[in-house]
User: Fold this.
Amino acid sequence: MINLGLGLYKKLVERRHFRFAKQCGATHIVVQLVDYVKGGDNPTLTQNYLGGWGVTRNEGKLWQLDELLALKKQIESHGLTWAAIENFDPAHWYDVLLDGPKKHQQIEDLKWMLRNIGKAGIPVMGYYFSLAGVWGWTPAPAGRGEAMSVVFDQNKIDTQAPIPNGMVWNMTYDTEAKGSTVAPVSREEIWQRLQWFLAEMLPVAEECGVRLVAHPDDPPLPEMRGGTARLFYSHTEYERLLALSPSPANGFEFCMGALQEMPDGDLYALLDKHSAAGNIGYIHFRNVVGKVPQYREAFVDEGDIDMVRALRILKKNNFDGVIIPDHTPK
Assistant:
């Protein structure tokens, strides 16, 4: 059975939005616990991504088991199920991404939180292994009826604008950082960093019954920001994730919008293949108009993807995960 979910940022995790989820017919919640100092309740719509999402001040503030259990109880009190957590806080793993001096301590912190997630009975942990993160979008009244949405136009920005020190994943984790910018990173190096991350994390994920699922790159470019390579910018590269480990805890956070933006492949064939094989943790049910180098996000019934066709594929394959409307225009 396909389960309808709603994705909520941390600041939106409260009674009013649980009621909204129920009114929409949702049964499941995906929570992003990453906290922002600026950008309003929804940085996707209120921030210009050229300037970054904001500042995280959560280094050392790990997700405690009692906090997770309390939030789960709150969600369940509204008749909803907590299906997944989306994204580690950059403050918790910036040196894992950057291959910095704190990476060994930070990977142990991630394992500790993963065990807490398992103890709390949350089955899926989504992550996005990227240095530049989601960057280069511009908010604009580009949706149907001039609804506010986000637009990416590669010809109007400098996609190689470097990442300043103290920033990763498009968030600032160190406001006092000295020096210049993050050094270029080759594709081979970024794949090695991901492989190390998975080798450390997947055995723990299996042990505690949590699935680690990776989000594809958005914007899907081979590299961005000062020559830092990206991992999952094409269907072919995204599928390489599964070749790194046969672990049942290794899977996809299948973002239909990001995958549709890519220049290669057939989205419906990819969805069919991996929903049938059980490789998908949950799905961002997002629609877009266009592909790189220029695209915009759209209402679910407005874009290039035939969403009904996608649902039929999932039904045919008895997909029993969660789909969430993702980045829906304001």
Summary: The chain is about 35% helix and 20% strand. Residues 3-324 form a domain with the TIM Barrel fold (CATH 3.20.20.150).
